[in-house]
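Quick one:
INPUT:
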């Protein structure tokens, strides 16, 4: 087989290529970059690709000027069309020997090979390298309803393979040290309370008295046909409305305060979300201070907040030795009902890194600071 080097610009893709291959371009590019070019692109006499569209796109991604090419001069146009389809289809007919593949992978373990070059995702590799990993009985993203009496209590530390999960207080030095067990961390993504009093407005929250929404007994008076009874009810409704910005809802719909069976996460107010400015400053210094102790110098953090935190986050970050570089804005593409004149449709993220070393950024360099990601309802 004759192979020649040709300028990439001289090679043309087949316009009616039925194979969708964009998802595999990056993996093929990584493979070429790591192992070199081992399979030429096959073209016809006019330089149109017969086999190797993915390799051609990978070469573009890598910025290569020339690539190895084999010209199929001995094939007729009909044979080329058939070969183009057969080359893609025959690759689908092969199957893995699931007894030998884990052995081959195990022999690569510890050899310094970058697993991402193999084309398997992390879940696939975990199952192949550990025969004990089985398919679950439910969807991987299915989250069961929490029990009324939680299994996990404050102070419980769960060890999940290489991961550790603590039910604790992130402002506590002892809790953070216990969780990390002497290890440093290379990335922080955290969503602390914003101190803006986000209150639950569910039936259970009202019935339990954990919100400033008025309770049912505060809204309903004994029914009376008399004018006095009507005025009493109206007075109670006005009192309720004055107690909270959404009190009118309860005045119009008293059934909203009827309790249901159990308290869910959305039925409970956020802890530390409505404290004094002084107390919130103390909490910020404790949270960010613990983060700075554990974060390796130069490593990044993403701290979610709101525009109300523009005043209190940066001073606490500076005091903790954390450099606030820029704000990232999440465009949720879906408005959220709020008490404000304009419905909220975005959220802030305070991005930066720990001082003391040149910062490390491993993401792409072409991502803007405005993220258009639709909020999941």
């Amino acid at each position: 087989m004759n192979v020649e080097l040709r300028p990439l610009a001289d090679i043309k893709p087949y316009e009616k290529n039925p194979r969708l291959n964009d998802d595999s371009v990056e993996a093929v590019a990584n493979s070429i970059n790591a192992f070199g070019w081992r399979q030429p692109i096959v073209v016809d006499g006019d330089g149109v690709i017969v086999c190797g569209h993915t390799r051609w796109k990978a070469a573009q991604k890598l910025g290569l000027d020339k690539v190895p090419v084999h010209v199929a001069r001995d094939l007729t146009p009909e044979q080329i069309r058939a070969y183009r389809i057969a080359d893609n289809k025959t690759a689908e007919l092969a199957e893995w020997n699931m007894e030998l593949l884990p052995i081959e992978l195990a022999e690569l373990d510890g050899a310094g090979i970058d697993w991402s070059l193999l084309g398997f995702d992390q879940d696939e590799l975990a199952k192949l390298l550990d025969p004990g990993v089985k398919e679950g009985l439910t969807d991987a993203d299915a989250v069961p309803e929490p029990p009324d009496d939680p299994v996990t209590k404050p102070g419980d530390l769960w060890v999940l393979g290489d991961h550790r999960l603590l039910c604790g207080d992130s402002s506590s030095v002892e809790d953070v040290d216990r969780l990390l067990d002497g290890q440093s961390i290379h990335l922080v993504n955290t969503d602390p309370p914003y101190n803006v009093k986000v209150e639950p407005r569910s039936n259970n929250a009202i019935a339990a008295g954990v919100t400033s929404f008025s309770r049912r007994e505060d809204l309903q008076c004994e029914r009376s046909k008399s004018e006095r009874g009507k005025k009493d009810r109206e007075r109670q409704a006005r009192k309720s409305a004055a107690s909270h910005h959404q009190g009118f809802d309860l005045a119009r719909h008293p059934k909203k305060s009827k309790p249901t069976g159990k308290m869910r996460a959305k039925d409970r107010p956020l802890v530390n979300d409505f404290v004094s400015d002084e107390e919130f400053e103390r909490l910020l210094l404790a949270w960010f201070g613990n983060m700075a102790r554990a974060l390796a110098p130069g490593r990044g953090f993403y701290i979610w907040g709101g525009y109300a935190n523009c005043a209190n986050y940066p001073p606490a970050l500076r005091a903790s030795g954390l450099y606030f570089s820029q704000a990232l804005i999440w465009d949720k593409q879906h408005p959220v009902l709020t008490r404000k004149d304009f419905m909220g449709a975005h959220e802030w993220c305070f991005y930066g890194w720990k001082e003391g070393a040149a910062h490390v950024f491993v993401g792409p360099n072409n991502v803007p600071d405005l993220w258009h990601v639709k909020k999941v309802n």
